[in-house]
Amino acid sequence: MLCDAVCKQFTRDAAHNFSPICGFSLNTGLTDSWNLVWKLDLTSRGVMKPTVLETYHEERYTVAERMAELSVKLHTLDNSGSVMTGVESQKELHYMWDRNDGFLTGIGVEYHISSLNLYASDDIDLRVRPGMRSPDGRITPSMITDNVTPIRLLDLFTVVSIFHILVFVGDPSHNNDYLEKLADLLTLQRLYSGTPNRRMFAEHREWYELIIIVPANVSQASCTSIVEAAGGIYYTDDVTEDEGLYARYGVDLQEGAIVIVRPDGIVGNRIMLSTWMSKDPYYLAEFLNISNIT
């Protein structure tokens, strides 16, 4: 149990006093809560280290600070004096809104690199960076029924306190060895000595959801082991290459990638399939910051 003093401190920090324009206080308060609730849940249950709670202040304080500055500027422009000044102020008001609309709504907020937002050196495509909101897109489930229709990726993110591991398989034949190793890890077929975090990660599937995504031009997922590890279901990118999830996430159609999405929908890391194991053999468990529970 977290002590009352800690809970009260978080509560005070999540309360903001902005001008009523544009609903700043509501938007910021909601995103504060969304950032904090899963961290409180997982740390209180011992799934993550208590130090994870420190990332709440690291991530949200700068957002609230910038939001307060924008609130003052927009409030000043919205309450201009003369008619002529008011016309110019309205133009400036609309310009500032259009320029910052993603940030003001919370959708475009981007967090700095931290223990929860890891930047891989091979991640050269900057369309999706750790700390950004996970892009949405249409995917088609592999279930063979008459009523299968495309769904939204973000509709799968329904449980607050779990991570979502997106496995973009790329060319299954090209990446088969890497996918087999990942399946071995997730099914406890391959473990390394002296790695209690890895064993615990693999044994507690309630902490994460595995989502397999194949390119639109691939008729079926030939990498059966990783599909079985995901419960026998995979998803096909439903739209053209330029508009699909592979393009939105900046994932190469041949090389593939692993993208870990935090419970609050923020991208935590993205790394190529060919390098995730060699760069850090305990990569997944380290990212989750799992405590050494006995």
What layout of secondary structure does this protein have?
Layout: H1 4-13, H2 24-44, H3 54-78, H4 83-105, E1 138-141, E2 151-152, E3 163-168, H5 176-186, H6 196-203, E4 208-214, H7 224-229, E5 235-237, H8 245-248, E6 257-261, E7 267-271, H9 276-279, H10 283-288
Parallel strand pairs: 3-4, 4-5
Antiparallel strand pairs: 1-2, 1-5, 3-6, 6-7
Helix pairs in contact: 2-3, 3-4
What does this structure look like?
The chain is α/β, with parallel strands linked by helices and 294 residues long. It has two domains: 4-105, no CATH class; 138-288, 3-Layer(aba) Sandwich (Glutaredoxin). It is 40% helix and 11% strand. The chain contains ten helices and seven strands. It has helices at residues 4-13, 24-44, 54-78, 83-105, 176-186, 196-203, 224-229, 245-248, 276-279, 283-288; strands spanning 138-141, 151-152, 163-168, 208-214, 235-237, 257-261, 267-271. Strands 2-1-5-4-3-6-7 form a seven-stranded mixed β-sheet. Helix 7 (224-229) links the parallel strand 4 and strand 5 (235-237). Helix 2 (24-44) packs antiparallel against helix 3 (54-78) and helix 3 runs antiparallel to helix 4 (83-105).
How far is it from the N-terminal to the C-terminal residue, by CA? Answer: 18 Å
Which geometry do the CA atoms define? Answer: globular
Q: What percentage of the residues does DSSP assign to strands (E)?
A: 5-15%
Tell me the major beta sheet.
7 strands, mixed
At the first level of CATH, the class of the largest domain is Alpha Beta
Q: Helix tally?
A: 10
Count the E strands.
7
CATH topology of the largest domain, by name, is Glutaredoxin
CATH architecture of the largest domain: 3-Layer(aba) Sandwich
Proportion of residues in helical segments: 40-55%
Mean pLDDT figure = 75
H/E series: HHHHEEEHHEHEHEEHH
Q: Label the structural class.
A: alpha/beta
For the largest sheet, list the strands in their spatial order. 2-1-5-4-3-6-7
Question: Could you list the spans in which at least 5 consecutive residues all have pLDDT below 50?
Answer: 9-14
Q: Measured on Cα atoms, how large is the radius of gyration?
A: 22 Å
